[in-house]
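Summary for the lay section of the report: proteins are chains of building blocks that fold into shapes. Here we show the chain for RagB/SusD domain protein and then a coded description of the shape we predicted for it.
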Amino acid sequence: MSKYLNRRFSFLVMIFAMLLFVASACKKDFLNPPTTNQAVTDEFFTSLSSCEQMLNGSYVILAEPFYNGTNTIIYPDVVADNVKPVIGGTFLTAHYSWAQVPSDLTTGTSFNLNTTWRTAYRITRQLAYVLKYIDQFRNENPTKADDIKGQALALRALVYFQLVNMFSQPYSFTANASHPGIPYVIAEDITEGVSGRETVQDVYLRLIADLNAAIPLLSNQLSNKIYMNRTAAKALLARIYLFKGDYQTAKALAVDVNNNVPIMIANYPSKLFTNTETEALFQLLPMQRSLNGSVTTSYAGYYFSTTSLSFIATTDIATLLNEIPTDARKAWVTASGTTFRISKYPANVISGFTQTARSHYQTLLRSSEMYLTAAECYAKLNNEDSARWYVNAIRIRAYGTGFETVATGPALLDTIAKERRKELAFEGFRMYDLLRNKQGVNRSDANSPDALTLPYPSLKAVAPIPTVDVLVNDLKQNDGYN
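The coded shape description reads as follows.
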């Protein structure tokens, strides 16, 4: 088949997927479909309400399948040293051994992250439609229109930041971040294809621009955390600046967030990942409903549960969480014979789910992360008193009084890194934290000898680009997968 026909076939597949999605998943709210099944055309966008429906449809795809627990939340811990697949399991086994291979969309699905890649661009095309039409209806309700636009911009940044971490080496991999990033597609027309991979530096510039544009538009109403809001967008921007190595800006944003939303003390950690988690900034709603196909969320807790036990904790993280007897977080791992089950996520948060392990909120941004971001940034900016204040707030909450650190210099940075690993374990950070700090992976209880060590730098630290996009859209494949 010629390259031109390949492109046409790919476009037709994508168009069909888009039409099917709009017919089945665009919602006035998360679980109630609109009365229309009209395709994505100019005629669909007739009011502010139609833009809101498209935005809410994007939230649905974000929840399932994009933040399906295996590829986005669990993957970074599996390829690092917090989580390992159950022997004989099928999910992420190749990733765990850094043995991913490129493949097309129909074969080798256990060896790649194609679903995550494909879904990301599905979401961002949806958001592009919102951004294209929203200003036409701004006069209906300027405040609401601004909020919808801000949400679309911030969600686009969230999705692309996830992609650049999965498919590209960290910002510090080259001196000026000139290595390949991802295509930052902002057009809604899928027939335009993809022009190529931007540099990581350019991707970060776009991420920052989207969030800086979003923040003044967004509502700061934190009572409904299943929608992106101003404080959550600031937290995401702080995370991006931290990963970029701009500690001054990351620190200022993290402190601002924590002034508005302090860490949760009461009900910690029992109310994490519930709708009463007071430190949550942005959460995904658990959903269960058949709607022209299954719309049932499968967040990380489901794959850690006995219902679908696919992953267990490594001995390394289990030992770390149990090193101080009073640590409230030691309950996040439970000994089961010679292995450790992960029990961080609650079940049956919303009643009525067929499988209760699916019923928990997936918190994507919370203030504990921002305390740790502030601590790390202050330490790297040589303001150790402030660094200790933030990390000690995390330590006192977890251990009780009497465990405040007085460390300085490299020991202080090590303490902060250890607390970050503990607090954010099983939430999708570990590999990216190792890479941005130029550290390799070292496991003490690997499932096989070839899974013991991954040095830094390594070409296998990032996932391969799907073959279909390499061939059809002339994208450069990641080195090491050619």
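Put simply, here is one thing we learned. The longest strand covers residues 280-284.
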